[in-house]
Each structure stands twice: as C-alpha cells, then as structure tokens.
Write a sequence for this structure.
C-alpha cells in the first residue's frame, strides 16, 4: 500500500469525522481549543497504524479509544481539582438560543457525572458508537457498558433537565 | 432520565458546536514528521553500531565457518532471541486484558542474517523484520493474517500490535522480557515448548496444590492422564472425574471438550483442579510435572509408578479385591472376590459368596470403561459385600491403575481396591 493511498484515505476520514471527534472531546470535558488539540494529537498517533486500523474495519472505535486514552492521560497530567458535587455549578448559562441552552445543559449534566459514566454516555450517544464498540473502546464487557449507561442516566435529574430546556 | 430524553438533549446540542475545517495538512505533516523522528531516533542508536556491524560483517566474511550470520548487534539479538508469551502489559496506563485462550507470543528468530519476530497476536498470526541495537529495537511493517475474532480478543490484538509498534526499548532479565515505549509496556515470560513426549501417555499423580504462597498436600489419589489419542482423564481424588479431549496450542494444553461426572465438585481440592483444568501450561522436571492454569492455580504432579512407556494391558489380568469403602466404614472382603478381564472384552467379578457379575469392558489408556450385564448365581444369604460390589460396579465412575493396584471409584465416595493376583 503506497503512502499516497494511506494519506488520501486518512485525509478522507479526517475530513468526514473531524467535527464529530471534536464534539466527543468537548463533551468528555475539554474546552473547544483543547478538544481540537486533543483530536489532532489522537489522529497523528492513529496515522502510524492507519493501514491496520483500516483493515480492522472498526475505525471509529479505534480512534475513539485513542481519544479517550489521550484525554485520560491529559487529565491525569493536568489535574484541575475537579470535584464531583451534588449541586451543579452556576457556570452553565444560556444565551437565549435553544441549542446553547441545551449545550449548556448537556455540559452541566455530563460534568455532574463521574468520568466513567460521562465517558460511556459520550461514546454511546454523542459519538454514536454501539454498545459493543463502546465496550471495545473502554476494554470492559458489554454488560458493564449497559449498567454504566443505565446508572449514568438514572443519576441525571429529570426535573433539572426540564427546567433548563425550553 | 431515560435514553430517549438524553438522546433528545444530545440532538439539541448537536448543532451548537460550530463545525470547523479540519487541519488535515497539519495533521499529516505532523504524522509524517513523527514517523521520521522515530526512524531517526532509532537510526542514531544504530549509527554507532553500523561501524561495529561492518567490522563484524568483515570478520564473518573472513571467517565464514565461525558463529552465526552477521547482525547489527549480536548481543541485543541474543537477549531478544527465544519464544516469549505476553503475561501482562499496559498502554497509556491501562492494563491489557489478557485473553487466556488466545495467547500473545513474541518469537524472535535469526535466519540468513535477518532477524524476524512473529507469533500469535491473540486472534491472528503476525510477523515482521526486527532490528536491534543495545537496548533498542524496532519492529517494522508488521504483516498479519486477517481472521476475525470476538471483540475482546480483537481489542487485545489491536492494543498489542499498536503497543509493539510504539515500543522501542527492551530489557531482558532473568526469565522476563519487557518491551517499553512511550506510555506502553509489554511484559513477557518464556514460552516453554510443551514436552509432549514425556507428558503424554503417562499417569501423573497429584501431590501438591499451590495457591499463591500456600502449598497444600492432597488427599485421595487424583491423577492426570493425557493420552496420545487426544483423550484425557483428570480426577480430583474424591470421586470427581473429568474426561474429554485435549490439544496443544500456543505452547499450552487446551481442553477442547470436557465432561465432569461424580460428586464433590464443591470440594476445595476439586475446585483447585477444576480451576486449572480448562487450559494450562506444563513444565516437566525429571518425574515432576507442574501444571499452571491460564486462569490461575498451580498443580504439582509426580509421575506415577503405574506409568510406563508401554500402555498397560488388562487382557487376561485378574485382581483380588482387598477393601471396599461403601458408606461410613471400610469392609474387608471375605471369600477372595476376584475381577477378571478376558480377551473377548468381557469381565467376570466373582463376589466371593457364590454369585458372579458379568459384563463388558473397554480400555482407554490406563482407564477402563465397564458395562455390567448380569448376575450369575446367587449367594446363599443376603451379603453386604455383594451389595457393595453390585453398587460399586453399577455406579463406577473410574476404573484406573494406581501405584498399589487397581481402583474402582464410584459415586458418593464409594471405592473398591484390588491387588494383582
């Protein structure tokens, strides 16, 4: 396989999935700028094994695994003092548009969860990975994905959600 | 909230993060530079060795009959050479989930002046050229078969091959090989070849069960026998017998079919044996066999005196019953009850008081399968001994040679012991 062929395939993937990967990174807990950096780092790393990644036909799962690992690593190196609290912080604000409200709300909701629960929800519902792919990304059984997702959803306060969203 | 509520929330937020143009050119440029840096890093280490290698090559050319073919760094190759099995590893701080039935192996060989590495990568087989210098090594352009496996196996394979690509340093200490790279570490132990010749068609008698730092002696007469026809028998010493099929795979013995019969499965000794029994590594040292279960547990066996290079034959043999354990006590029989195995595949069991049990028998290695057919004659009076023999033959789980003679084990701890006549 020539380098040109690998490059063009890789470039096509980047063009098609860049925004989705940035979105995943944002909801994993990054700022927009950090998210783009994280995705860029992840993709550079994935490029090295692109031929094998492509052959495995699980490209999204593979890239997300690298993304989650890179995020975990970045998080452990740059401890921000994040502490889970029962009450959500006041930082979630709305700018008058429903999508911004929803984003703020989704941010708040996800930030209120543990990292494990947040990661499962992001992979399943933001990145649209299947339960099996999520299990592969996190190296956990499918049953654990299901139970983590169920517990994460159960931990979200429906009333708070309805107050925030129009 | 339920999934639907959450999905709605995600959908609403989906358009909020404005799209951006991906910096594809930058990413590709960084990826190309990263690849070049890595090659250069290895090249720097190798540069010093090239001169040495040239000298080595020159020496080898001058003395063609001496030593192995010239390789960049012979010491490094010597240290890496051999067959290794992945025991554990971490990638980005996360442990690799080893799949016991799908080993990962790292086999380094030298052929025609080229070093190659290959083996099993959990699901598939892989191979690559390898260069080594000092404590650095490089695996390039890995090729592998493309079989599909269950997701956890596939995940291990991907993680391993990625980590192998990332690893640049190795360390070989006593019986351990560790490969390291940026945020990856792969730890290997020697992959010992299965000593099939001595292992197979031998009766191994369990002596010790090792659990962590605790070693326990065993009760009863538990044995392991792997036969060259692919069948096996493993007993727990308290009436539990495992029978089925085995094969050698990836340097280990894998039980491919197994059925358990008899009681005492919850017995601690049975549990230890069952835990180690589905797939295990073996090591033979003299007459001692160490079985290490892939899922944990260690069983130490000793070659039984009943073993021989020639299979025992029961044809024409006669056995005098010396004791029968049935219920709480042990009965010492009277009237010399005798079990005889005839050439035509039938047996006769004289009960010692006038009656005879008959049936057919077939041999499996050092074991016998007995099918009872009928009782000939009657005892003059009801005999506890005949009842015990009848139950023993009817419920027998295992008829096997022991160091002392012949033993018939039945359900609920029933056992009859014999010596050769």
């Amino acid at each position: 396989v020539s380098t040109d062929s690998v490059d063009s395939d890789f470039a096509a993937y980047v063009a098609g999935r860049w925004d989705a990967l940035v979105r995943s990174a944002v909801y994993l807990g990054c700022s927009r700028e950090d998210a783009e950096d994280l995705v860029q780092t992840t993709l550079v790393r994935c490029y090295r094994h692109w031929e094998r990644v492509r052959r495995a036909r699980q490209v999204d799962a593979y890239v997300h695994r690298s993304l989650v690992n890179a995020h975990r690593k970045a998080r452990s190196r740059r401890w921000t003092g994040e502490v889970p609290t029962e009450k959500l912080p006041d930082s979630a604000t709305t700018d008058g548009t429903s999508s911004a409200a929803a984003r703020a709300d989704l941010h708040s909701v996800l930030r209120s969860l543990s990292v494990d629960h947040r990661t499962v929800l992001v992979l399943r519902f933001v990145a649209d990975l299947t339960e099996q792919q999520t299990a592969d990304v996190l190296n956990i059984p499918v049953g654990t994905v299901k139970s983590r997702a169920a517990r994460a959803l159960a931990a979200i306060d429906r009333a708070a959600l309805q107050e925030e969203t129009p | 909230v339920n999934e639907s509520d959450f999905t709605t929330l995600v959908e609403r937020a989906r358009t909020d993060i404005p799209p951006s143009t991906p910096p594809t050119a930058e990413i590709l440029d960084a990826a190309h530079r990263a690849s070049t840096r890595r090659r250069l890093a290895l090249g720097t280490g190798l540069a010093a060795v090239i001169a040495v290698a040239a000298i080595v090559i020159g020496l080898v050319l001058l003395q063609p009959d001496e030593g192995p073919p010239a390789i960049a760094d012979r010491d490094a190759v010597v240290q890496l050479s051999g067959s290794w099995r992945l025991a554990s590893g971490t990638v980005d701080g996360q442990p690799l989930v080893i799949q016991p039935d799908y080993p990962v192996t790292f086999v380094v060989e030298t052929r025609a002046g080229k070093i190659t590495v290959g083996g099993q990568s959990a699901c598939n087989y892989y191979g690559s050229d390898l260069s080594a210098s000092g404590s650095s090594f490089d695996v390039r352009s890995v090729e592998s078969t493309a079989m599909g496996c269950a997701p956890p196996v596939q995940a291990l394979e991907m993680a391993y091959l990625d980590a192998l690509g990332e690893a640049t340093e190795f360390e070989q200490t006593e019986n351990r090989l560790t490969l390291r790279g940026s945020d990856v570490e792969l730890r290997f132990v020697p992959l010992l070849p299965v000593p099939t010749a001595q292992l197979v068609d031998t009766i191994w008698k369990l002596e010790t069960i090792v659990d962590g730092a605790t070693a326990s002696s065993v009760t009863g007469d538990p044995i392991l026998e792997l036969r060259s026809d692919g069948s096996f028998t493993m007993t727990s010493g308290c009436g539990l017998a495992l029978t089925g099929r085995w094969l050698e795979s990836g340097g280990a013995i894998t039980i491919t079919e197994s059925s358990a019969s008899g009681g005492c499965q919850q017995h601690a000794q049975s549990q230890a044996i069952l835990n180690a029994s589905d797939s295990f590594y073996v090591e033979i040292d003299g007459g001692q066999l160490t079985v290490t279960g892939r899922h944990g547990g260690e069983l130490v066996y000793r070659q039984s005196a009943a073993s021989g290079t020639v299979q025992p034959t029961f044809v024409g043999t006669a056995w005098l019953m010396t004791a029968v354990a049935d219920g709480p006590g042990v009965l010492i029989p009277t009237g010399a009850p005798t079990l005889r195995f005839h050439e035509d595949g039938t047996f006769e069991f004289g009960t010692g008081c006038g009656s005879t049990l008959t049936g057919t028998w077939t041999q499996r290695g050092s074991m016998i399968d007995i099918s009872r057919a009928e009782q000939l004659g009657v005892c003059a009076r009801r005999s506890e001994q005949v009842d015990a023999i009848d139950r023993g033959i009817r419920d027998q789980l295992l008829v096997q040679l022991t160091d002392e003679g012949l033993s018939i084990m039945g359900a609920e701890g029933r056992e009859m012991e014999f010596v050769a006549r």
